[in-house]
Amino acid sequence: MTDIGLSHLSRRALLLASVYAATAPVAEAQTPTPRRGGTMVMLVHPEPSTLATYAVSAGNIPPVTTQIYEGLLTYDWDLKPAPALAKSWEISPDGKTITFRLQEGVTFHNGQPFTSADVQYSFMEIAKKVNPNGPVILAELTSVDTPDPMTAVFNLANPAPYLMVSLSSNNMPIVCKSVFEGTQPLNNPTANRPIGTGPFKFAEWNRGQYIRLDRNDRYWKPGLPMLNRIIARFIPDAATRSAALEAGEAHFAAYSAVNAADIRRLQANPILGSTTDGYGMTAAITALEFNMRRPQLAKKEVRQAIAYAIDRQFLVDNVLYGFAKPATGPLSSVFATSGFYTDQVRRFDVPDRLEIANRLMDEAGFPRGADGKRMSLYLEINSFGEQWLRQGEYIKQALSQIGIDLTLRSEDTATWLRRCYTDYDFDINEPFYSAGADPVVGVHRHYVSSAIRRGTTFVNNKDYRNPELDRLMDAATREPDQARRAALYHEAQKILVEDSPGAWLCEVQYVTIFNKKLHDHTGPLGAYQALDRAWLDR
């Protein structure tokens, strides 16, 4: 295989793009020595609609783009900040100034030197304006000073301790100012041919087949990366994805790339390994979103009735095959250690839940018709894996018990996102949320009224507006005392569950499946960090 492209290869040859024979016997009783070279095949599902990760937060983009873009920081296994493009930092005693000292000798893939001007532009002109997380995470950021090329000073209106857990390449990638200045970010020529400072360079995107990333020979970390290239493969069929792993034709699959129904079987395969490590910042929850612009769903009783009608344990057992637990609200129970989580909210998992749900539908003014139906609604099926269709099929059955006739609608990813986040042409949507290391990072944007931003994905598309909830979230953003901050989040959870702008279903435990010949592939951020140290034992 040469570096000039893969478009001439057959589909079968591409699956066999690895330079080693996956069926070779595994060495015993010794730690293999890291070896440079080889091609790693990574399964990504579904195929991204764009690589503009600075403006679109869909979870299938970062496995590719975090190889290309870098952030100011990365994180250790305790999820504490560690150096990336910033080699060190100082936070002022009042918490309103953060001074980052930048790595020297770093160049972008186009040869341009990395400086503080790129940091200033990335945050003030890109992240604050077009990043889905920007208006919430960077609300306190007023300016970025550049006293010299290797120093960037963040000026904050108020302390923002959560900011330091929000600066990875996934959340806040650093872009090249000279490439973006004077352009529309989403229409920039590099939106789908990204240029970063990371260990791998974008080489080719064969739509419907793969993205190829080649080694950055000028990477600033000495001796890295280890691999020659990474191939991100797109295989629509879940069974075929699993078969590629079993045959040794793919080496790595994370998040929804492996169907939950296949995980147990793949774990029993001797050439494969699995891990749940690397999902510490995920805190993933499956949920429903209700479009409150619809007259039926504008009524709280209807939204609550839908939440009562769904048996969350059934979803855990039969859709996610045990790799989950029932959710109680918008915050995952992983936040229990910080004190932020509470289950002292309205509970929908009560024995008489269907009786309550039907009564609420009556009270909302939707009696059953002669055919037993009260209303008809559409459910938009999440395009990120087969389990979402299975979940939708169950929800259709569950809601029929309370007189709701649900029609399932499946579309490609781009159409699904446009329908739900730009056109608002939906009744119920079934996304999943990743909360991140702090609720400000991944929870606020789904519920605060300031995050109603047409055309921005995975924000408040529900038209949910509650001034008291806004006040609590705003106060929690600024509150430095952990106990008082926890009390604010407890109150916010009670309000949100009572209002039910969504229905929270399951806390998901993702599993990464990998070929045992692939080493050093899992870090604190899992598939959302660079695979610069990954290598193949050939």
Automatic annotation (TrEMBL):
It is found in: Periplasm. SUPFAM superfamilies: Periplasmic binding protein-like II (SSF53850). The keyword Signal applies. GO terms for molecular function: peptide transmembrane transporter activity. One of its GO terms (cellular component) is outer membrane-bounded periplasmic space. Residues 80-428 form the Solute-binding protein family domain. Keywords: Signal. InterPro entries: Peptide/Ni-bd, SBP_5, SBP_5_dom. The keyword Signal applies. One of its GO terms (biological process) is peptide transport. Its main location: periplasm. Residues 1-29 form the signal peptide. Belongs to the bacterial solute-binding protein 5 family. This is Peptide ABC transporter substrate-binding protein. It comes from Neoroseomonas lacus.
